Task: inverse folding
């Protein structure tokens, strides 16, 4: 195809792609449509001997990773953690959470008692009944 851009003529040959129809069938506005896709063109992968974090490996032309011949992975023992300090920290955290929960319950109860005293001072009977029911729920 002969094209011109800013007065310069050139030949443009768009690359041709092999298309394959898939088995997927769909509909668009009531008409059947078969989807198509570009056929995969394999790219050759580089062949190399590489090393990652001290472990050597080899890549083949398909892009797959292969272990180097004659090299065996060494099994390293897992580092031992000190059990006592971890348990002590867990216990300290559990104690702190228990104290925080108790402090929260006490705060809610003080707030409820104050609201109940104000409702009694105003003589608001429906509010007193609601706050009494809330107090019984808090205890349960």
Result:
């Amino acid at each position: 195809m002969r094209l011109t851009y800013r007065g310069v003529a050139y030949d443009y040959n768009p690359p041709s792609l092999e298309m394959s129809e898939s088995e997927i069938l769909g509909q668009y506005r009531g008409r059947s449509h078969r989807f198509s896709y570009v056929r995969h063109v394999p790219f050759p992968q580089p062949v190399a001997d590489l090393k990652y974090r001290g472990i050597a490996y080899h890549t083949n032309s398909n892009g797959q990773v292969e272990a180097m011949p004659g090299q065996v992975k060494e099994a390293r023992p897992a580092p031992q953690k000190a059990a006592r300090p971890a348990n002590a920290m867990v216990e300290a955290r559990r104690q702190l959470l228990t104290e925080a929960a108790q402090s929260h319950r006490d705060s809610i109860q003080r707030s409820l008692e104050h609201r109940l005293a104000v409702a009694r001072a105003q003589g608001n009977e429906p509010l007193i009944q609601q706050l009494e029911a809330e107090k019984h729920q808090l205890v349960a």
